Amino acid sequence: MTQNATKNERVVEIFDIFKKHLVKFLEEAQPNHEEYTEFVKWADRLGRAGELPLYMDVFVETHVLRTVYGDKPGTEPSLLGPFYLENAPLVTEKPYKLPMREDEKGEKLIFKGQVTDVDGKPLANTLVDFWQDDANGDYSSFGADAPPYNLRGRFYTDDQGYFEVETIEPIPYKIPTEGPTGEFLDFIDQHPYRPAHLHIKFDQEGYESLITQVFFSGDKWLESDVADGVRNSLMTDLHDRGDHKEARLDFVMRKDQ
Ligand code: MBD
Ligand code: FE
């Protein structure tokens, strides 16, 4: 017998566990064959509409994070979400400012923070990868009329692990409702909103990549975030500084393994 070179033991392991729980789930939920067929048609529409990443990141990603990273030290991770793009423009000129239009709508926001390890040692030259929605509630490159990579940028922390970046205040995000994901939201009677949030991904040699989000106290949707991405430790205050707003949050990265 020749060995099947592409057999993946981890897939076998996960599929076995999945089947065990699937049977338990079916025994409890007792979907009939018609309901099964309706589900397959809906899942097919979901995929064809390109909404599979959206649906997964809204309804499943939070559970992956809570299960695996629940009680580890360091900043709590939050959802990567479906709107991350690799290779956002590198911003090198200080003061850092996210790429935006000349007449970008929205309130100017200065966001700052310090990145350290779990012992409080500053992590200089950490790559900070930033993305968010615009004042219309759109992410660039995903149906927005904004130019590619608008409000997306990468920059490095200074020798004290600090960074400070100019952007605009994000607004609450309404996930698309006109497709199969919206259909599903109607079935479960759930609103389509996420509280306003900043997405940040931190990368540093020898440390676990940290993917997280920042939320603002007082937001109307914090308690009922459709994607369940809010964590109390990721909340900060927006301070009014007259012609702009300012917010700060510090971040803690943990070593690889
Ligand atoms: C978002 O903006 C988001 O961050 C997530 C996790 C899911 C859908 C839209
Ligand atoms: Fe988002």
TrEMBL record:
- Keywords associated with the record: Dioxygenase, Iron, Metal-binding, Oxidoreductase
One Pfam family, please name it: Dioxygenase_N
Top-level lineage group: Bacteria
Cofactor(s) needed: Fe(3+)
User: Which PROSITE patterns does the entry link to?
Assistant: INTRADIOL_DIOXYGENAS
Which residues are in the Intradiol ring-cleavage dioxygenases domain? 111-139
User: Cross-referenced InterPro entries, in alphabetical order?
Assistant: Catechol_dOase_N (IPR007535), Intradiol_dOase_C (IPR000627), Intradiol_dOase_core (IPR015889), Intradiol_RC_Dioxygenase (IPR050770)
Q: Which PANTHER family match?
A: DIOXYGENASE, PUTATIVE (AFU_ORTHOLOGUE AFUA_2G02910)-RELATED (PTHR33711), INTRADIOL RING-CLEAVAGE DIOXYGENASES DOMAIN-CONTAINING PROTEIN-RELATED (PTHR33711:SF7)
**Which family does the similarity line name?**
Belongs to the intradiol ring-cleavage dioxygenase family.
* Protein name in UniProt: Catechol 1,2-dioxygenase
The organism named in the record is Alkalibacillus silvisoli
